[in-house]
Task: structure prediction
Amino acid sequence: MENKKEVLLSLKNAKTYFPIKKGVMKKTVGYVKAVDDVTIDIYKGETLGLVGESGCGKTTLGKSILQLINSTGGEMLYNFGGNIGVKNLKKLTSAEMKLARKRLQIVFQDPQSSLNPAFTIFGSLEDPLKQNGVAKREDRRKIIGDLLEQVNMRSEYMDRYPNEFSGGQRQRIGIARALSVEPELIICDEAVSALDVSIQAQVLNLLKELKEKKNLTYIFITHDLSVVEYISDRIAVMYLGKIVEIADAEALYENTLHPYTKALLSAIPVADLDKKSKRIVLEGDVPSPAKPPSGCTFHPRCKNCMDRCKTDIPALKKYMVDGKEHFVACHLMEEQQQATPLSEQS
Result:
């Protein structure tokens, strides 16, 4: 995505820390730095893939954007447009937050636990409509029936219960619920990881189709690098609460710069053995976000670690690789001069 595109959401030094409390008095003795100084722009109409190992902070970042988790610092600037303009999601009034709940929605990982088994599908989907002024029951039924048809399900399914559907069907219902308030931005939190491969393809194609029809913007959180390549316009790679690399999907796979990203991509299963790259095995475990390493947090597992990596935190800098923008936070890039640094991301 080029910078001339409209920025819908801008994260500036976003942080989400969880206090560690000990003792009878529950004194705070430290913090788990789940999201640590994340700066990134999300453009209107794009799909931003957010990838990384389990525990790197992807889901926490998504929930922080939605204000389901209170962030600790930084800014989350959302462009509401019109008379409201750009607002910090952390400082919204009650009326503005109600509008934000319409504009920002989420599709959860587990389609079964995200639906109340005691409610019919109509019962699960009608509450957002009630909250947003659809008072008449017949109007709500018409809207929900149309939504179900948009996700390739029959409208009469609204009177059934969640246990009567397969996992793929339940996820389609979850997507319909997210669409019910006509959002601009949808955060897909591992939206296909609980599904069979064949069903994954159907849901991914549905998401792409809906994006084009409704001009949606997605933040697609996943650990599956083959899935994120298929659906994403840009990809951001997280490690221990930080963004370590951002690029267009094609550029990331063709010109991978960060050692961590290279290791992730080397683990993707490939049917053609001639195209299979050598597996890069990372040594050791992911460090604790409660006690992150000094300097570059990846340096204890990096085979290219230099003395500088152990003390200096690398900034996320912009490079030009084959004429395309590429952001990476790695001292090795500066030392090897594989690309020309233009500026630090603001």
Confidence is low (pLDDT under 50) at residues 339-346. The chain is about 30% helix and 25% strand. The first strand starts at residue 7 and ends at 22. The CA atoms of residues 113 and 162 lie 10 Å apart.
